Model the fold of this input.
Amino acid sequence: MTKKRKTPSNSDGELTLPVNVTAQLNPVVKFIHENIAESASTLKGFNKLLKNKGYDLPDELTTAVEAAFAKGVDDRLYEFHSHLPTDLLDALYDDPEEESEIQGGDDGDEKQDDGGLGFKPDSASVFARYLMDDLGIQVFKDQHDIAYLRYKGQVHSLDQKKGRLVIMSLALANNAPVSSTFITNVCAVLSAVAITESEEPEFVYLRFAPYQTGSLIDLGNKDQEVILVNKDGWDIIPRPEDISIIRSDSTGEMFRPQKCEDPEIFRKYLNIKDDVDYRLMLSCLVAYMHPEGNYPLLTLMGQQGTAKSTAAKMIKSLIDPSHPSIRAPVKKEWDLVISARNSAILCWDNVSSLSDDISDALCRLATGGGIGMRTLYTTVDETLMDLTRPVIMTSIGNVTERADLQDRVINIFLQPISDEQRRDEERLFKAFNADAPKIVGFLLHALSTLMKNLDSVELKSMPRMADFARKIVAMAPAIGWTEDEALAAYKLNTNRADQLLLENSLIAAPLIKLMERNAFDWFGSMTELMSDLSDAANQDSRIIGHTRWPKQANAMRAELNYCLPALRRIWGVEIEDMKRTATSRGIKIFVPNEESQRQYSQSDDEDDAHDAQIVQRSSQSELGGNF
Done:
């Protein structure tokens, strides 16, 4: 242990030095000031560092340094300053009065007005108060009780990197410590003030925000410009000060839009030959730019080599550019929350399967619902998020197998590309980037049309995802559809989704055979149903031996519940629970009337052809029919 030396001091215990000694100590004091909280964890190590730099620890400063190393890392600099005379402190700072405010007194003294309690504020809390009171940083909480800071017109989360970098840069500019622990403590103090002292939460948005009678879309450029969209059109304006729009590390800059009302401007860059699919895809993109409501999942499906990933990159670059533009799907629910918090639109590439937990979480993300997890490094605290986000996925096969997720999906089918038709990506994107401003301009035109018509839309019947259906109808004039054509196209997509769901169900085909054998009316227990379905599957081990084949009665009941909505919509099948007996409870599976039975025994291709005919007539009459 270093031996303590007697140092000259005044009656208050403050170090005093002769004038001639002060001038000689200034370089040493400056070096200690810059390194005492950063370079060594022990006094012995710090003395070694001083010697390596050609300095010896003067006897006159021993007490100050020893007192500093008796404290924790965050308090060392404060403690060192508290033992220095005023003339040395003045030599360290260009503005002694500013430093004295940070240190807690007009003359650098460690004493502060503590209300008579005797507590001494630590350096992190003093610096945090200095940031708010003198540098103009504002702190507040959002609708999820997350703390944010606002500085020079920009908003940053205090628990993310950009917010910490702002604090660190201000600490560096004001000669405060910049250690990780100190910055963490300053952010913690600011967060505490934001959470406890904010009267009302402020809504914070990412890329898309409701504003007055329209919405704002952040262009993501250095000039802080936004696109104002309302029923009268759109325009580019400076970002208003009364709205909080943040940018994550991955947020990119949008193409600067140009006026355009041509829905065909985007078609030549996509491998989507079906007119219904193309216009439904446009409808999704426009709905994604609307800041409120439910968002269907957009699934781009096709064989290998159908340019699914290329289409996804283009779509993402138009409405929410980011770096990278497409990513691998997440595996855990909390990773989904983090992605949703940092991206206005999620875009996953080459999705081969989705777990049940992720499927359920995507349902909540599409239509709104809380996602909660235990807060890291705590025992009982829980972090909750209530987010809605659009999701775009590419896949070879149908990955949205669960019925509740399939109800929220728009499936777009891409066609194979021959070698003669294939274009290299460099030249394709060069042409696309030239047209992209006009494509964005068209999407904004359609969004303005949606806002103009939405309040007046009244649907005769409410399909699944009714909010999205209303938006399709509202934007239909810009897309090139009438109301009936838009609804027919949406119905066609949902029918195809039902077919995909039944194709993926192991019990659907055996159940259809069972109904045909029993004249569309079957009654029995769940155990009997399991046996009859196995017989209807011809006891095929590839089916009844599959891991997804229900092995228990409760599993069979769950599988029936998943399939029933699609069976009802396509075939008119109903399931009715019968009166419970002493030993079991029977169920009745039936098609209620002859008309439904005829529909059941026929293919639904006729209905799909009818819906497709409606939208095809629109294509031929308005756009020449060449798609």
